[in-house]
Amino acid sequence: MKLTESMIRDMVKTELSAEQIGDLLTMTGFEIESIEFVDGEPVLDINIMANRGDGASTLGIAREILAKSPESRPTDLYERLVSGYQLGDERTPLAEVVVESGSPDCTRFSARRFKGIVNGDSPDWIQDRLRKVGQRPISLLVDLTNYVMLETGQPMHAYDIAKLGQPKLIARQARPGETVRTLNGQDHKLGEGHLMICDGKRPVGVAGVMGGESTEVDAATTDCLLESAHFDHMAVRKTRKQLGLQTDASYRFERFVDPEGTVRSMNRFADLLHQATGVDPVAGIADDYPTPPKRPTVKVRPSRCSRLLGMDVSSSEVETYLTRLGVSLDPVGDGFQATPPTWRIDLVREDDFVEEVGRIHGYDKIPEALPIGSTPVGGSHGANLAQEIVLKTALACGFDQAINHTMRDLHPLDGGSLRVKVLQPHSPELAHLRGSLLPGLADTALKNGGESVHFFEIGRVFSNGSEWTQLGMLSQGQFDPPSWNRSEDVADFYTLKGAVESVLKALAISVEFSVSKDPRLHPTRQAHVGKFGVMGQIHPAAAEEAGLAPDTFLAEIDLTALVSETSTERHYRQVYRHPAARRDIAVVVPKSVRYADIEGTIAKACGELLEKHWLFDIYDGPGIDPGSQSLAIALQFRKPSNFTDDEANQVRDLAVRALEALGAKLR
Amino acid sequence: MEQIHVLEKAFEEAVQSASSTYELRQIELKYLAKSGELTGLMRGIASLPPDEKPKFGAAVNEARARAQSAYDLRLAQLTEAERSVRFEQDRIDVTLPSRMPRAGREHVLQQTFNKIKRVMGSMGFVYFEGPELEDFKYNFDALNYPPDHPAMDAQDTFYVSDTQVMRTQCTAFQGRLFEQVKPPFRYFTVGRTFRNETVDRTHSHTFHQIDVFMVDEGISMAHLKGTLGAFARQMFGEEVKVRFRPDFFPFVEPGVDYAISTPKLFDGKWVELGGAGLVHPNILERYGIDTEKYSGFAFGLGADRIPMMAYGIDDLRLFLENDKRFLEQFA
User: pLDDT averaged over chain B?
Assistant: First the structure.
């Protein structure tokens, strides 16, 4: 909301400069977005908090300045507005307003009639101020309603009585099928829950939002009915959202307007109209105010103020601050019974008043202290800790971390078909929640040239309404940048498998890699990573579609499941000081035999004597039957005494014999 | 005796003329080794008269000792000379490019998250993660948002269904924890949040937040200020000061907006970081917590802004683009 400096000074006598007023307001919670000079005058753009509709007026802003700056004084205009702005005979109305029963959303409905008007231009000073706050002057009557709203926060609307037919307005619920054309020329279909302002027959305005075109004042208007009402904030918000109409009036009503302010605002309007044209209001105010809202009474204890604010505030300070804000206080026991003013529906419970006390006393006086009491063991535990270990391990394996978007478009690497859709997406490309991290990693690879890229990501993925954490990995090409002194080390299935196994090992989890059938991956070069995921070379079709190199390798692992199975338990195994014995074997086996079975057979045959084993060569060249291959495997034995040659050979022979059962022949 | 003298002289000449350690070792074998000529003189002692034996023996030993030290000296000289030659051959260009061990690079946001975790963890706050696809009730209702309140306008929400939203604030983790734990407690989270905002250099539909809250006996705004101060000083430097300004968030009362200032950053101006306040008593009551005994504080802030401010990054969008040329600058 924008106000000119002069508007504020109309209500507050203060030594403070515009900038100082701005700083003061900022520190009371009404943040100054900017102070701009318009035609040489400072215009303050004030941010109104969602719960402080009372601040959306010069009056409300003045109240805050007066509460926070005791040196400042109210002006006559301020005092007059606060005391109700009596003007002329208010008792015998020459107009009628009716709040139809069953319309609780209209709390109060007031109106006043004006005759003999010439609806020309408004006075220069009003036009000037409206322009400075970014409004367009229209005509005397319209400008006055807009200007008084800036002063008091009360939205008002002027109807042409000649167009209304009679000086009478009715507030009621819309009937099904009714329509109204609003001032901006739009037609609106009305329905249940929409509160309307009507003449005898039809709607002439949407209550609290915008008046109707048919009864609009214009240059020919001489007889006008001014509406000043109070509508429920929730109802106005609902209506303006459904009709897609946001106005200065609805902005204020949905943040709450003081129901006690309807009459003073009309009278202020009348006074300004009189000053401008000499026209007097026709005697009397029509006012239907069926049930004035009840105000709560809340016990406020200075002791609680001090305790929650963390600074000492005395009883008399509490009294001073709250009184300045318009709160009525009755001393009782260890505090006060406090009744908030009619313009503050946000003051409901004791702590709301504590905030008011703190605000006016000054948050800058709050000291810094660290909490004492029971301090838990901070940081990450359990699954969160395990996830951090996964992150560190992936980094240690030489993979760079990527962080990609959650919302994205569909992608050939996004597994599954149960994608979660965003109902009203930011854009069509952001309409789905990712079901896999691989599409994002593919984007990352492409972003970086698509070659020699080794990335991982840890992030949330979604399917059919559920959510879990995934580890995704993508690996292509050389691990190291081109160098003058290094041999090439290029990503393949087994380098990625090594990284995956490192992650599993860090969590003390062992799994089997078994043949899998993921349509995104090369049909004969992919594996299940136990029950936790899948890895392999990208399917050539997916590679083509995604623009990736065909020798790109991918892994996708359910980290939520993985970390739930990790264990921090480790058991020590004795380290023997006796020397190890090594025996190498070369066996020829059919290619159909899985190495996992060979390993398992060796381990079973050698038992505990086998300390470790490793495959150091695969050969299928001349001398080997087609369909077979020769595997060279090193076996390392150790036991708590020295191995003799014979003993080592015996253990080796056990392994060889066991392998023969798999169809292996010693080479 | 004459024999000793002759041999010793011959040895000395040979040693001096040796031009390599290899030659020198041949000379050592010829004269000094077990079967060497000088050593062999001792064998002649048997044929000497008894009174000459000690004198001859002593003379041989002395000659051998002199020869040994002449040899050692020459060996040292030759070794030194030969090494100098080899060192010259070994010479490398130390300015040739290095061979870096391959280490994965941690994303700059992750580095920030790690630092936050270290700082908050060290103050006794336990890390907890809630879902990104969050129930509407945790994102709003449990945080004391009145139904359909203008406060929601500031958080343009992505709906996935009538009851599920992409969380607009990490504060949504509060309700989940309140359901599980009883005070006293301290928790924090770092996570991803979503709002349907226009994307530009400082705004995105996807960003990251830190959210912290605790409930204990006697917690006040001073504890909030102290904790925020300690946190901000760890993140931005020891000279950081914290300022509170009243603001409205439905889940806190009193509610503040906090800013920091430090002479080293932002020209010493106040920079607003986020929202904070005391946990709203409506929330404590909803979860059966006695508001006379317990109070709590909560604060939140944007995580992306931390590296932006610390490193002078001027475009938020860079974080999720994963361009190596960007990421490499920080790891």
Answer: 92
Identical fold, A96-288 and A298-364: no
The rounded distance, in Å, linking the Cα atoms of A149 and A158 is: 13
Sequence-ordered list of residues with C-beta below 8 angstroms from that of A348, at least 6 positions apart, any chain: A296, A298
Reference A92, options A247, A285, A323, A249; nearest CA is: A285
Q: pLDDT: is B202 or A311 the higher one? A: A311
Which region among A101-110, A128-137, A527-536 has the lowest average model confidence (pLDDT)?
A: A101-110
Q: Is residue B100 part of a domain?
A: no
Q: Are strands A73-74 and A281-288 parallel, antiparallel or unpaired?
A: unpaired
**Is the CB of residue B139 less than 8 Å from the CB of residue A433?**
no
Q: Decide if B280 touches A, using CB distance below 8 A.
A: yes
Residue ranges per structural domain of chain A: 2-82, 96-288, 298-364, 382-564, 581-666
A637/chain B closest Cα distance in angstroms: 33
Looking at CA atoms only, how far is residue B330 from chain A in angstroms? 12
Q: Give the pLDDT of residue A159.
A: 92
Confidence grade of residue A314 (pLDDT, cut at 50, 70, 90): very high
User: Which pLDDT belongs to residue A184?
Assistant: 87
| CB nearest A381 (choices: B102, B126, B243) | B126
Q: What is the pLDDT of residues A63-73, one digit of tens each?
A: 999 999 989 99
B167 and B308: one domain? Answer: yes
For A2-82, CATH number out of 3.40.250.10, 3.20.20.60, 1.20.1530.20, 3.30.56.10 equals 3.30.56.10
Which CATH number does the domain A382-564 belong to among 3.20.20.30, 3.30.930.10, 3.40.50.150, 3.90.1210.10?
A: 3.30.930.10
The CATH architecture assigned to A96-288 reads 3-Layer(bba) Sandwich (3.50)
Tens digit of pLDDT for each residue in A219-228? Answer: 999 999 999 9
Checking if the pLDDT of A416 tops 70, the result is: no
Residues B35 and B155 in one domain: no
Instruction: Out of A238, A370, A467, name the one closest to residue B148 (CB).
Output: A238
Residue numbers in A near B250 (CB within 8 A): 51
Indicate if ipTM > 0.90.
no
- Please check whether residue A474 is in contact with residue A451, taking contact to mean a CB–CB distance below 8 angstroms: no
Q: Which residues of B touch A465 (CB under 8 A)?
A: 133, 160-161, 164
- H or E segment and range at residue A560: helix A559-564
The DSSP string of A126-146 is HHHHHHHTT-----HHHHHHH
- For B167, the domain range is 108-327
Whether the CB-CB separation of A535 and A471 falls below 8 Å is answered with: no
Residue B279 contacts A where some CB pair is shorter than 8 Å: no
pLDDT at B168 over 80: yes
Question: Does residue A299 surpass a pLDDT of 90?
Answer: yes
Q: What is the pLDDT of residue A282?
A: 76
